[in-house]
Amino acid sequence: MNVALIAPTVNEVEGLRAVFPKLPKDLLNEIVVVDLNSTDGTIEYCKKEGYRVHHQVSRGYGAGIMEGLAHTSADIIVEFPPDGSSPPERIGDLVAKVREGYDLVIASRYRDGAKSYDDDFVTRFGNWLFTAIINILFRAHYTDTLVGFRAYRRSAHNKLGLSTRGLSWTAQQSIQFAKAGLTVTEVGVDEPARIGGVRKMRPLKTGLEILWVIVREFVAGRKFANVFPVQSASER
Ligand SMILES: Nc1nc2c(ncn2[C@@H]2O[C@H](COP(=O)(O)OP(=O)(O)OP(=O)(O)O)[C@@H](O)[C@H]2O)c(=O)[nH]1
Ligand SMILES: [Mg+2]
């Protein structure tokens, strides 16, 4: 199975400079930077170093990942925010779990003693609250439904119907994998602080967006699981 890494960027040149040289290139068949109108040298850095850049046509984090999916073909997808908060040396652990049979593997900041050095009180509490609500409503066992660093099988993802265009993408993905009864796991991964640039996530806006996604997904019920009968990893 081939592996594609999708790295969404809006002015992240400092993060890229620090993180991209450490990517495990031997594991990655495709690397695509999905960039939304960066003006800080992100595009120039990528071109100079020979990375493929897809210029995002739409707006929003989720919409950017969707464009990245459309412009890659590998069977395993790694979503990798390159702002310094995703440790590149753990990509191999996530990919190994997908190869083992899991459909979705989340790099949880709150499992196995992992720590976030990027969280503040609001983001930590927000993640705890939304993750608790998602676990109750969708009978899941997540510790981190919102982190951007994750890996999954394209074939599993294609059975779902992700539609959210903003930073609630990760919440919707966590919910839909659980609703469809796909095999999901987490590995504990420390989250270093962002390197340079500015955070695009705005707690109130993103929080309301996530709440809206949760309500929509709850009202929609488990229809994806019914429409697409899902095999367990062991049957595949
Ligand atoms: N292509 C693209 N990238 C985006 C967009 N919004 C955010 N990003 C990138 O997505 C990554 C994560 O964004 P952040 O602003 O750090 O948000 P976050 O990591 O979810 O939130 P924190 O944990 O608080 O940092 C960064 O690399 C951003 O540059 C977007 O609309 N399009
Ligand atoms: Mg970040």
Automatic annotation (TrEMBL):
It comes from the Bacteria. Residues 6-160 form the Glycosyltransferase 2-like domain. InterPro entries: Glyco_trans_2-like (IPR001173), Glycosyltransferase_2 (IPR050256), Nucleotide-diphossugar_trans (IPR029044). Signal peptide: none annotated. PANTHER family: RFBJ PROTEIN, UNDECAPRENYL-PHOSPHATE 4-DEOXY-4-FORMAMIDO-L-ARABINOSE TRANSFERASE-RELATED. This is Glycosyltransferase 2-like domain-containing protein. The lineage of its organism: Bacteria, Candidatus Kaiseribacteriota.
